[in-house]
Every structure is written in C-alpha cells, then in structure tokens.
Amino acid sequence: MAGPEPIGHRPWLSSPLDDDDPLSEILRRLPPRPSSLPQASLVCKRWRDLAASPQFLRDFRVFHRAAAPLLGFFHNTNLGGPDRRFVAAADPPDRVPAALFRMPCGRNHKEWKFLDCRHGRVLLIGSVGPRREVLVWDPMTGARRCTPVPPDAGDVRQGAVLCSCGLARDCRSSPFRVVLVWWIGTTQHWRVAAAIYSSESDAWSHVISVETQLAPTVLVTQRNARKPGVLVGDAVYWLLPESRILEFDTVRRSLSLISGPVHSAGSPYWQSHLVLTEVKELGYAMFMVTEVSIKLWKRDTGNAAGWSMHRSVRLDKCLPRMPMQAKPSLLGFHEESNAIFVWINAGLFLIQLESMQSRMLCQGVGDFEIYPFSGFYHRDAAGTQADDACSHGLPIATLTMWHYEDPEGDLHGPFSMAMLHRWRSNGFFPEDLRVWRTDETKEQAVLLTDAMRMPCY
C-alpha cells in the first residue's frame, strides 16, 4: 500500500488570484476611494504592479466613471500660497493632500479665477487684460491646455468644461469642450453671448448672443456673485440673482433665460442653488431659515409655472444650532453624490441629500465661491506642480482669512493677521487665544502667538 505523496510533490491547484484577468476584475470593483488601490498594492508585488499599470487605471476610471468620488473643492478666495486654493473633503486615509492641488499658475495664481470643475478637469480664466486666456487643467496628471478667449469676449462670468467621451471612455484621454458666457451692452441694453471651444479643432465656434430683459441690478449684483453651473443632459444652467436662470444648450447652440420657482422670488442669491434631482432633472434649492430646511423644486414644463414642488429636507438634525440672526448660504452642489454645500456661522458643511449625513469641511464664509472636484486619485500617477512655498504680491498679514472663538463661544472672522496683532497688542485677547484659517476648521486652530511666527503667514 503506497504511502502519502510527499508534500513537495503534490500538484497545487492554481488560485484565481494567480491569473491577472480575474484579479484585474476583482481589483476593478474596489470602491473608488483614494485609499483602495494603495491598500491593495500592499498585498504583494504582483498586485502592486497591476494596480499601478496604465491600462488597469484607465479601466478602473471607466468602470467607476459615473461615481467618481468627491476629493474636495477649489475656491476663489485668496488665502495665501497657490496650495491654499483647494480644501479636501475626506478624512484620512482618503484625504488627498492639498499640496498636490497646487495652482498651475504659480505665483500669479491670484490673477486666475475658477469657472468650473467637471469630469476630472478644472476650468480657469485669467485676469482682465490684452492677453486673457482660459486654462483647462487636469490636477491628477498636471496636464494643462491654455487658449486665448474669443476676441470679442466681454465680461466673462460663467463657464463650463465638458467631456465628449460619454460613459464608455476615460475622460482623461478624451477631447473636451469649453463654454464661455459673457455680457455685453450698456446700462439699459444688455445682451448675453456665448462661444464653445473644441480641443479637437483648437478653435472657438461663432458667437451666439441673445438680447435680455434683465434689470440692471441683476447684472450689477452678478458681477460679484458666481456659482458653478449644473449640467442636465446637453444643457448647462447657471443661477443668476433675482431667481433668474441662464440656459445654454450645447447641441442647439442656443441661449435662453428662464425664471425660477414663484416662491423663490425675492430670495437672497446666496440662499439658493441649482441642483439635480434623483432622476437627473433640473432642480432649484432654497434655504428656509425659519424652518431650518431646504425646499427643492424640479423643472416641470407641463406645469404653467414651469416648476413643481419636489421635496423638503429638514436640516436641524444635520447642522449645529444657528443664532436667530444667521444668514446661511448654499454654496455648491456635487452632482455625482447628490450632496449640497451649506454654510452657516459654525462653518461649511457637506450634506448628502439622500442619507442626510453631514460633515464639516472648513470654516468658510457666506460668499465662498467653491467648485467641487471629483476624480480618481492614484499617488503614483498624480501630477506634481512647481514648488512655490509662499505667495507674492499682497502681504500675507493683510489677507482676511483668520477666525477665532471668544470666551462666550461666539465665532468671529475673517480678519487679517495685522488686525489680530494690533488687537492683541492693545490687550483685547488672552494669551491662549487660538485662531484658524478660512480653509480650516476650529479643530485645527493654533495659538495666535504661534500663527504670528509661522512662515508665509
């Protein structure tokens, strides 16, 4: 009777994980969080090589394209250096370092304004001047493309960057389009104009324009009020003051103005925002201060008013208690996760409208111009920006970006460091006063005396 076969000679059954094809399928289905692939790469060298291969990363982005994670947001507030224009939206280990999103414009970053973030790309416009340009930037790879604005472009206030690949391809390697909208005319007679840039032809389309009946106060208010647009099908919508909405149809190449819900008439601009409903229809959100809730309307062409009530979302369980004189703001909307950015005196909060989960992102301010950015971060593929440790131009001490809490628990700010230094010299502050920046939370506060000694502060 033969004895047992020696262990060293037994034929081992191969594991499915020894084959790159099923392993690739398994890894592709990992959650698209920034930490997923790095953690999988720790298993062994073969997993690490597969997770870092360009082909796998392309497949991973295509597979999760409809659910790209929110990494954070860019903003148009000057808080110092070029790495201070991005605020991360996730906790470790999924928190992406802000330094990786250092502005591609270097020391001139203050002369550039964000207009849109979409499909992993960012759209910026340069300052007013003879060589105004728009810049399309991929923060994940560092790739950028710059082109002059149309020769007749006036006061550009809205813009959008759109991918042409659909859901079956990777946006990162696909052509894109840029939409710019500007206003031309006099105090009593205004026209709105738009043009589309194609990365394939490297050219702008002819200018489309339409006469408007907007009151002069709308345009004056809108000069200092910008919010990102919302993409619904083939059309982009931007919210204007006095509950007016600008629509640009990218297929028909047409511009039109529509009115918001009747109940939104007279509501403050910063307490309203355009959103998407669960079935990707155009929605209109308005903060109701007395009820601590958000009213949501949806576009309804079958309704004589053009809108119908969609739902009401109570926020009293999602937000800290607000003082009676509070003036909350709706500052942004993330289309992929159906989440809205709400600012109150306590800080800027991200609220997921389905689960009603909320988290504080930073202190923020009531007119914070923010542009949510979602994408697929992989540390080995992320682009790097040129080092520029300090911002030059305005002295850092003069930037109004510091907040503090008084002994009664009330929050104050933003103030400049020069102002805080003067108040401290006059004996208004205790020695243990702690301060934090607009792009930070109270939990990140440092002693005022330490902040005054920090480089680039």
List the helices and strands and how they pair.
Blueprint: H1 20-28, H2 36-40, H3 45-52, H4 54-63, E1 70-75, E2 86-88, E3 113-118, E4 121-125, E5 133-137, E6 144-148, E7 155-163, E8 176-185, E9 190-198, E10 203-204, E11 208-211, H5 216-222, E12 230-232, E13 235-240, E14 244-249, E15 254-259, E16 272-276, E17 282-288, E18 293-299, E19 307-314, E20 329-334, E21 339-344, E22 347-352, E23 358-362, E24 370-374, E25 400-405, E26 411-416, H6 417-425, E27 434-437, E28 446-447, H7 448-451
Antiparallel strand pairs: 1-2, 1-24, 3-4, 4-5, 5-6, 7-8, 8-9, 9-10, 9-11, 12-13, 13-14, 14-15, 16-17, 17-18, 18-19, 20-21, 21-22, 22-23, 25-26, 25-27, 27-28
Characterization of this structure:
The chain has 457 residues and is mainly β. β18 (293-299) and β19 (307-314) form a beta hairpin. It has 4 domains: 19-63, no CATH class; 69-259, no CATH class; 261-368; 396-451, GYF domain (Dna Ligase, domain 1, 2-Layer Sandwich). Strands 7, 8, 9, 10 and 11 form a 5-stranded antiparallel beta sheet that branches. It has a 4-stranded antiparallel beta sheet with strand order 3-4-5-6, with no helix packed on it. Strands 12-13-14-15 form a 4-stranded antiparallel beta sheet. It has helices spanning 20-28, 36-40, 45-52, 54-63, 216-222, 417-425, 448-451; strands at residues 70-75, 86-88, 113-118, 121-125, 133-137, 144-148, 155-163, 176-185, 190-198, 203-204, 208-211, 230-232, 235-240, 244-249, 254-259, 272-276, 282-288, 293-299, 307-314, 329-334, 339-344, 347-352, 358-362, 370-374, 400-405, 411-416, 434-437, 446-447.
